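Re: Re: C-alpha cell formats

Sure, here are both.
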Amino acid sequence: MKVCDLLNGKENHVLTVKPNETIGTLARLLQRHRVGVMVVSHDGRTPDGIISERDIAYSLAERRGELHLLPVSALMTRRVVTCTPECHLSEVMRLMKQHHIRHVPVVNGTQLVGIVSIRDMMEHRLNEMERRYSSVEHLVTLTD
C-alpha cells in the first residue's frame, strides 16, 4: 500500500504554524486541535520544519517562564524527514524507526499534501491483520 492510498481515507488538511508564532500560540493550537505535532511553514504549503509537544516539554526544563514567548523557529526541527505520496508504507515505517520519529509530512514536489503518523500506521496494520484473520477464518470454515 502507498501513502496516497492511506491519505485517501484521511482529512487532507494539514495543520501548520508559522515560524514566527510563539510557543504559547502553538500550545493553544495543539490543544484546540487535539494533535501532538504541527508542520512549521511560512506559507502553509512548504515545510520549513516540524514541532511537537515533546519539543515543548523538553524545553520547559531549560526555558521555564520565557518558553511561551519564544518563536516556534527556536524549538522546531529544521531537518524534516518527509515522504512522497508514492512511497510505500513499509518505507515510511522504516523512516520512522530509523529516525525515531512519529510523524512524517507528505510532500509532492515542494507542496505539503498530508502527514502520516505512527497512529495511522498502527491502524493500517491492525486493519490488515483483521482482514487476514477473517480470510483465514473463512477458509477454515469452508474446509470443516
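Second one below.
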Amino acid sequence: MTPKPFKLAMIQMEVRGGNPSWNLAHAKEQIGEAASEGAQVILLPECLDLGWTHPSSQMMAEAIPEGHPCTVLSAAAKEHQVYVCGRLTEKENERIYNSAVLINPEGEVVLKYRKLNELEIGRDYYAQGDRLNVVETEYGTIGVMICADGFANGQVISRSLCYMGADVILSPCAWARPADHDNETDPYGKVWRESYKPVAKQFSKAIFGTSNVGPITAGPWEGRKCVGCSLAIDADGEEMFQGPYGKDCILYTDVSPQLRPTRGTGWGSPIPLQ
C-alpha cells in the first residue's frame, strides 16, 4: 500500500512537574489546535504527564491504556480523528516505566514502547524496556523511540527501527540545560543533529524529536530548564527546522507519500509560559 501524505504537528508544550491535570488539559487543548490546522499525526514530548524524573512519578504513575493520562490522549485522538504519539509515566505491577504510546484515530493504543537507553540519573525512577516496536499505518510504518534512545551507542536504536521497516521515526523528548544557559553563545541541538542526521541519510528516513519547555522543579535535575528546540530531519539527512528556544508552540511539517518531508511550515504564535 502506498503511504498517504500527512501533516505532522510537533507540540513543543510546557510541562509542569507533578501537575498531571494541568499538563493533560494543555496537551488536549494543543491537540485540538493542531487538528484544526489539518494535522493528521501529532507528536507530544517526553513525560508530558508528570515531567521527566519528577518524584511524583513514583506515586502517580498509571497503567497504559487504562490509566487516566492515556484515556485523555485516546479521547482526544478519537475526537479529532488523528494519530497521537506521546510519552507517559506507566505503572505495571510494582514497576514504573518511561513509556511512549501511539494512538490511532479510533482512540486505540496501537503501539507501546518502554525506553531502553535511559540516562543514568533516570534509572532510579524508571525500569528498562525490553523491546522495540513499529506499526503499519495508512501513513507508512511508524517507529517510536524516546529522547536519549537517539544517541545510544552507534545510534543502535534508531538504526534498528529502520531495519524493522520504519518509514518515519517519532521521538518524544525532554531536552534540558542549566538555568543560566545562554543559547546565543551556546546554541542547543548539536548532539541531536549528530545523532539523527547520519541515520536519516543512510536509511532515507525522516526523524522528528519533540521536546517540552519549562523549569524542572524537583528530582535530580531540579533547577534546570527544558528548552524545546524540537528538531525535524528529513529523509536526506538535512535539517528542515529547529523549534524556538524555551517557547510553548506547535510546529508543522508536511510529509510526502514517499515519506520525505516536503517543507517545514515553522511554528504558530508562541504561547507564553505562565
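The domain at 6-267 is CATH 3.60.110.10 (Nitrilase/N-carbamoyl-D-aminoacid amidohydrolase). The first helix runs from residue 20 to 36.
- S.
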